[in-house]
Amino acid sequence: MDTHEHRQMSGNEHAGHGGGHGTTTWSMAAQATLHCLTGCAIGEVLGMVIGTAAGFHNATTIVLSIVLAFVFGYALTMRGVMKSGLTLAAAFKVALAADTVSIAVMEVIDNTVVVAIPRAMDAQLNQWLFWGSLALSLALAFVVTTPVNRWMISRGLGHAVVHGHH
């Protein structure tokens, strides 16, 4: 978040006491979503690659991808807030508050898209369908999750929780 956008958030939003829709910009929401998408995408892609390469059942591959998306999403947030001096336990609580809804929405969207694309779950690592369906699913997850994050940030929830620790 750049300095101008950071100044637009009121103290109440940082404290989690709400705020107006007008103070949370789409840019702020997009940046929060991109941050979340980074960890989510690392876990999602890694899970799909491992599951596909190992020949796991589709359901197992999806569960692995979801678990890894949460692990990497939380880890990236924790890494950032621990730099402010938080303990591991405190950083985990911040990550839970900041990222759980965002990652959950992303995972519902991206896994639904991959499952809905014919033969995508059966595609192999050397096929464009494997990589194309993943890229499309993550792009759509970003589009759907950005308004969710904007709404949450405007109420001092989600990614807004992280800003008090930078």
From TrEMBL:
Keyword RNA-binding: no
Membrane-spanning residues: 56-76, 88-109, 129-148
The protein's name in its UniProt record: DUF4396 domain-containing protein
Stretches the record annotates as Disordered: 1-22
Organism per entry: Curtobacterium oceanosedimentum
Protein keywords: Membrane, Transmembrane, Transmembrane helix
Span of domain DUF4396: 25-157
Pfam name, any one: DUF4396
Family matches, as InterPro entries: DUF4396
Highest taxon listed in the record's lineage: Bacteria
